[in-house]
Amino acid sequence: MAARNKARKRAFQILFEADQRGESVQTVLADWVRHSRSDDRQPPVGEYTMELVEGYAQYADRIDDLIATYSVGWTIDRMPVVDRNIIRLGAYELVWVDETPDAVVIDEAVQLAKEFSTDESPSFVNGLLGRFKDLKPSLRRDRD
Questions:
Q1: Span 29-54, pLDDT tens digits
Q2: 56 touches 15 (CB < 8 A)
Q3: Long-range pairs for 60-65 at CB < 8 Å and ≥24 separation?
Q4: Contact present, 100 and 93 (Cβ < 8 Å)
Q5: From the centroid of its chain, how far is CA 135?
Q6: For residues 12 and 40, what is the distance between their CA atoms, to the nearest angstrom?
Q7: pTM
Q8: Cβ distance 129 to 88 under 8 Å?
Q9: I need a surface site. Which of 37, 99, 104, 105 has the fewest CB within 10 A?
């Protein structure tokens, strides 16, 4: 598994855990880092994982606004927790990280949905992130 793929998976897991625990992503990230330093069985939290989690945290409110605005038929609170957090991570990387090609971001998010969510989730994730990709020029104007 490629390093960035692992980083995305861990970042998703941190976002998911924070959502489930009702904690900030920064708190859960700090827990993961602390555990990896004190327990040899825990894999280290890589730099790109930290960048993704911290980047998401910086734009979390804006990302949730985008999801609420563009997800048809789903409020963010009704959305499955796994899907919500995959989309949050993908939206951050798609709109705010210029180094990663859009197609890679969407494909990785769809793969996470295939691995961790329902049979319908990959198409939902693909559709919503595809919409963000199409709207990216206008979202980028509003992004900061």
A1: 999 999 999 998 988 999 999 999 99
A2: yes
A3: 60/25, 60/88, 62/142, 62/143, 63/88, 63/91, 63/92, 64/88
A4: yes
A5: 18
A6: 22
A7: 0.94
A8: no
A9: 99
- Phi, psi at residue 55, to the nearest 5°? -65, -45
pLDDT in tens, 2-35: 889 999 999 999 999 999 999 999 999 999 999 9
Furthest C-alpha separation in the chain: 45
State how far the Cα of 127 lies from the Cα of 40, in Å rounded to an integer. 40
pLDDT attached to residue 74: 86
Closest CA to 82 of 132, 48, 119: 119
Find how far residue 121's CA is from the centre of its chain: 14
136 burial type by CB count under 10 A (0-12 exposed, 13-18 middle, 19+ buried): middle
Residue type, 77: D
pLDDT at 123: 96
Half-sphere exposure of 134 (CA within 13 A, CB side): 7
CB 56 within 8 A of CB 66: no
